[in-house]
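Hi there. Long-time user, first ticket. I'm pasting a complex I've been working with (about 412 residues overall). I'd like to know whether the download I got is complete or cut off, because the file seemed smaller than I expected. Thanks.
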Amino acid sequence: MAVRKNQATLTAQEKRGFVNAVLELKRQGGYDTFVSTHNSFIMSDTDDGERTGHRSPSFLPWHRKFLLQFEQALQAIDATVALPYWDWTADRTTDASIWGADFLGGDGRSSDGQVTTGPFAFSGGKWPVTVSPDSRNYLLRSLGAGTADLPTKADVDGVLALSDYDTPPWNSSSDGFRNNLEGWRGVNLHNRVHVWIGGNMSTGMSPNDPVFWLHHCFIDRLWAGWQARHPDQGYLPADRTQDVVSLNDTMKPWNDTAPAALLDHTRFYTYDSAY
Amino acid sequence: MSEQSTSTDLTRRRMLQGAVVALTAATGTVVLGLTGPGAGSTAAAGLEGDDSFDEVFQQRRIQGMPMAAGTAMPSGHQHGAMGYQVLIDGRELHMMRNADGTWISVLDHYRTFSTPRALARSAVIALHGAQLVPISV
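Hi, the file is complete. Here it is re-exported in full:
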């Protein structure tokens, strides 16, 4: 079973293994399907209509399943690969090792935001962006331009202290752990990280930037951290609720997995340490 | 540009957009989000009298305008109240409204804006001169 590790602790060989599997999935054509799927959900998830991937209780189980599928696609290429997570409360500067040329590459250049270093730079020829809302076909980042600071550990701990998983009306205006983690309310955790990175990560096609997977892996680990802190609380809503995925409803696009089947991540993988 | 010519131009463009919306709806692209919990008085305040605009910002033409009620959505869902559309150099910027009346666009899907004009200006900055393209899903 895969052990998901903090990206800051990966060996050079582990970094190469992850990067090469991602590049190979891109070359084979499978990568961009993940980008399209994410965008089609984020554009149709609305506060007053059906909502599955975002702004709803199933934000966390939907992304857990989405990451599992991506991790399995990488493992079909290299069985030793596991998704790393990025603890942005600790590695929070633009010169952190995650942005190194040996891993995800660095910030976009000031003239047009194009990432020019690392394995995903357009000049390397292996990372054309094909699913995009505009005419650009290269990876874009503007680290720290959209918002000054990444969330802190204190921000995270405050959100993990919230006891209700989610609350009516089960959308971007809800109180509770899920919406404070997603970031439409409160100190803003998940959304703020997308904005801090900027470029493709700010868009509905955010998986165009491979850092998407490391960010969401950390979000997934925070969900497990919340579960450990609140053993008497669980996924809500438990009962059928219009337009949202309740505990035992299956989720689109898979239609075979309900949140209830995903609550225990240790059935699928473990983390190197608990948050 | 006189107020009258702006108005005429907007009317013409709105008719053109009707076709764009019908086309994107047919291909499965969701166009606008509106109404829902909290979208009453807050939503109205969110426009802040900004219900239409047409300006040049950083050398790009940005326009915003309310859309007709009852716009059909690909899901079969119908918007019961007013929708909204933003164009950059005549091309549609996909946008949605949040329950609290704020707005997001496909270029800024994780950051909210209090008005469509602020959303359009942010999109212009993010584009660095690039053109919007139709979104296929």
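A couple of notes from our side: The radius of gyration of chain A is 18 Å. Chain A has seven helices and two strands.
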